[in-house]
Amino acid sequence: EFELVPPTSTSDRVCHSHSVCSTHEFEIQGGSRFVDRRCQELTECRSHENEVRSPTSTSDRVCQVSKVCDGSREYEVSPPSRTSDRVCGFLAICSSSEFESVGATSTSNRKCQELSVCSGDSFELVAATATSDRMCSPLTQCLPDEFESVSASAYRDRVCNKIQECKTGTQ
């Protein structure tokens, strides 16, 4: 209790029970013999904020603006909650021997896959890009009645032509 009205020569003092802070308030001034307790509404974090310090009976909750992932370098690993910040992860960077097989989104990392390697019995039909694999094709094999008129390379098939038959009986 605290003294609401002091006594006089003709009246008794009037005492009053201290106010009690509700569960949605915290105490900003403690009660004393002559002063009532003062309470204040707790801060509510807004939708783009998260709580970094929980309230106590004598302190307010502390909110901070949730982290925003930089979409050019990061993706969201886990979203913010009422009491935890958003977690961002760095986007994978595909190496020169890889291509991006699955693109990144705001909530998922890109996936990189090893580029196909054209073996000695194939050539590169379609070159790789940052987001597609190269396509290899088997080299043409010349038949017994053909000869190789254009040699194969890593990027070109061989060309085979028919061996010319000599006409018989002519001089």
Mean pLDDT: 94
Number of strands: 14
Major sheet attributes: 2 strands, antiparallel
Beta-strand content: 35-45%
Gross morphology is: rod-shaped
Molecular structure report:
The chain is an all-beta fold. Helix content is 0%, strand content 36%. The chain has strands spanning 2-5, 14-16, 25-29, 38-41, 49-53, 62-65, 74-78, 87-90, 98-102, 111-114, 122-126, 135-138, 146-150, 159-162. The strands form seven sheets. It has a two-stranded antiparallel ribbon with strand order 1-2. Strand 9 and strand 10 (111-114) form a beta hairpin. The protein starts with a strand and ends in a 9-residue tail after the last strand. The model has no long low-confidence stretch (mean pLDDT 94).
Reconstruct the topology from this structure.
Elements: E1 2-5, E2 14-16, E3 25-29, E4 38-41, E5 49-53, E6 62-65, E7 74-78, E8 87-90, E9 98-102, E10 111-114, E11 122-126, E12 135-138, E13 146-150, E14 159-162
Antiparallel strand pairs: 1-2, 3-4, 5-6, 7-8, 9-10, 11-12, 13-14
Keywords:
171 residues, rod-shaped
Concise description?
It contains no helices and 14 strands.
